[in-house]
TrEMBL record:
PROSITE patterns: AA_TRANSFER_CLASS_4
Annotated segments matching region Disordered: 1-141
Class of the enzyme per the UniProt entry, highest EC level: transferase
The reaction(s) this protein catalyses: L-isoleucine + 2-oxoglutarate = (S)-3-methyl-2-oxopentanoate + L-glutamate; L-valine + 2-oxoglutarate = 3-methyl-2-oxobutanoate + L-glutamate; L-leucine + 2-oxoglutarate = 4-methyl-2-oxopentanoate + L-glutamate
NCBIfam families referenced in this protein's UniProt entry, alphabetically: ilvE_II (TIGR01123), PRK13357.1 (NF009897)
Keywords, comma-separated and alphabetical: Amino-acid biosynthesis, Aminotransferase, Branched-chain amino acid biosynthesis, Pyridoxal phosphate, Transferase
Highest taxon of the lineage: Eukaryota
Residues annotated as transmembrane: none
Organism of provenance: Thalassiosira oceanica (Marine diatom)
Low complexity composition bias: residue spans: 20-34, 121-139
Protein name: Branched-chain-amino-acid aminotransferase
Record CDD domains: BCAT_beta_family
Amino acid sequence: MPGEPRGVSQRGPSARRTSTDATPAGGDAGGQTDRPGRGRRAETEIQQVRARRTSRGRVAASLRRFSGREACRQAAQQRRRPPRTRDREHETENTRPRGERTDPRPATRTTAEAEGGGGIAPARSGTSAGASASDMSGAPTTADALVREDVEIEIEIRTEVGPPFGPIELYPTSTVLNYGQSLFEGLKAFRREDGTIVMFRPDMNARRMASGARRFLLPAVDLETFVAAAEEVVRANAHWVPPHGKGALYLRPLLMGTGADLGVKASHTATFCVYACPVGNYFKSGLTAIRLQAVRGFSRAAVGGAGSVKAGGNYAPAFQVQAAVRQRNFDEVLCLDAATGTMVEEAGASNFFAVVEDGTLVTPSLGPGTILPGVTRASIIELAREECGCEVAERHLTLDELKSAKEAFCCGTGASVTPVGSISVAHDDGTEDEDAATVFGDGVSPGALTQRLHRILSGIQTGEDAELSQKYQHWIHIVEPK
């Protein structure tokens, strides 16, 4: 069979020869009993030959069974099957009536399943019911429960109760593995002083994922489903939300092509899931400026590409440059435009702002489609105009213009507002361009506007600024308890 590895039988079990004419070397079938025990040894050898042939036949059959074409055919048949009836033969731990569960773990309500927003699995046994928020520093400690929803594009959306946090089964032919057909989002849930848990602007994350889904030919998860799924994850992992002022619960929604669709095309099946991770405060003792380095010859995205999409594949190409920059004792890479290599676009995982010489707050424009439309970016633009009275411009920002800038900062979900102390420019070989270096203020302390915007945004998210929290209450989504 074409495509099968050499040394593997090309005959499956149905075509396997079963003749037993194998004869030991140095004798024939009629002479196998000349000496005592010789017949038994010969029969043993024949059985071993049969076993090897049978084993090779099974391997070949397995290879055929899991070939791309066969997997696609099986997936199509699976999609055409009617929903299984709820009978005793097909019951699972997640479908068995609550009173008949054999799993000793407590069941978690699956309200989102009825509402079309995903489901929650029981919490893992042995998982701590809480954590010390003072110890949370952003390490990848995942929370308990996971929402998962499978989407068959041409048929329907069906919501299933997802497992606790753990591995997700995927076909080797799935488009997320082979072609990077995947999107992700990032948002946070905060615990306020009165114990209320809130999410910050989840509607914007939902709309951005829907926009990326159109670009990547994935099914758009509607706003209600997205928010309901995020809510369910927060509720199921409420014990992981740090105390007021000690951090947040970071949520990571994923949307990816998961069907058995071998071929360079969009998947016929997609999976949407949400998981959570508790994180501590990014800055432990006040705002501390970071050092950025731009690398000539490296750009994150080009005009006409997918730079404005929050796709997994947009981040891996920067890993090598990020590692090199950090090895040179810089905190993050600053991405330049692909056409000229002279204009700032954004940092590795955050948007960039600078207060230029005339006092205008400038951030690179979204127009060329090479910059991610950040949720925090949009919030900062509005707060700078409405609360700080700043003139804000979305336009090109060159490295030369930064030399006379008063201050700069990055912003994103992870670190909120992060002051930038200096920017270095390096060539491909790592040598620095001394003429292009820029230092803001003393290179360590945050600028006045940076501090103010950080305080305003944090006050709205955590509820510490009651007046602004009321004014911008449409940015806050309260997670009602069960």
